[in-house]
Amino acid sequence: MCNLYRLASSHAEVARLFRGAAIMRGNMVEEVYPGYPGLVLASGVLRSMTWGFPRSETSKRTGKPLKPRPVNNTRSENLGSPMWRDSFVARRCLIPLTEFAEAEGEKGTMTRTWFALPDQPIFTAAGIWRDTDEWGPAYSMLMTEACIHAVGIHDRMPVILPPTVWDCWTDGTPHEALQLCRPYEGEVTIRRTADRWSTR
């Protein structure tokens, strides 16, 4: 599942990709982690939202509420569940990125392996979003089975949407949108690094 991605482009570059979409100014960082802001296209506007729907948790030791945990990935086969259903039906969005990472290697020594599209410097993943009491607008990235290029590293990957289906994802019926939740069929480049997955 994707827990790190990059968007190495400016607001203006991303706006041009989305046919001159309006921009709502906000925080924008190059590396995006769960619980932190990322840029999404929602209702025709580029805006900053928190990556992950907040899930409330309680301490098993004290019984007191804990800080909410960001649920940043949504399995496409779970879109009918109460947590995701309303957002999938009414609030689908596009998530621009230049590459996403997966952890590879033995536990404790995992490194970052990056995936990108050779023919698209900026590409899009499918997302859903909603307003939250805890963090304001928040989004989650759709996951499906890994494509042939990534299957040896992870069994899941983001739902990558080519430009020809962007309108179908955002404005089509839920049934039409669900048909787009499938492994990516184009070329994917893989860049292995020696960078540790966790720097903590």
Counted beta strands: 16
Query: What is the H/E order?
Result: EHEEEEEEEHEEEEEEEHHE
* Beta-strand share of residues: 35-45%
CATH class: Alpha Beta
- CATH architectural designation: Alpha-Beta Complex
Number of helices: 4
At the fourth level of CATH, the homologous superfamily is SOS response associated peptidase-like
Q: What class would the helix/strand composition place it in?
A: mainly beta
Low-confidence stretches: none
Provide a concise account of the structure shown:
The protein is mainly beta and 200 residues long. The chain has 4 helices and 16 strands.
Descriptive report:
The chain is mainly β and about 200 residues long. The chain has a single domain (about 5-55, about 65-100, about 120-185), classed as hypothetical protein yedk fold (Alpha-Beta Complex). It has helices at about 10-15, 85-90, 165-170, 175-180; strands at about 5, 20-25, 30, 35-40, 45-50, 55, 70, 75, 90-95, 100-105, 110-115, 125-130, 135-145, 155-160, 160, 190-195. Strands 2, 4, 5, 8, 9, 12, 13, 14 and 15 form a nine-stranded mixed sheet that branches. A five-stranded antiparallel sheet has the order 3-1-10-11-16, with no helix packed on it. The chain has a two-stranded antiparallel ribbon with strand order 6-7. A hairpin with a 2-residue loop joins strand 4 and strand 5 (about 45-50). The protein is globular, with a radius of gyration of 17 Å. The model has no long low-confidence stretch (mean pLDDT about 90).
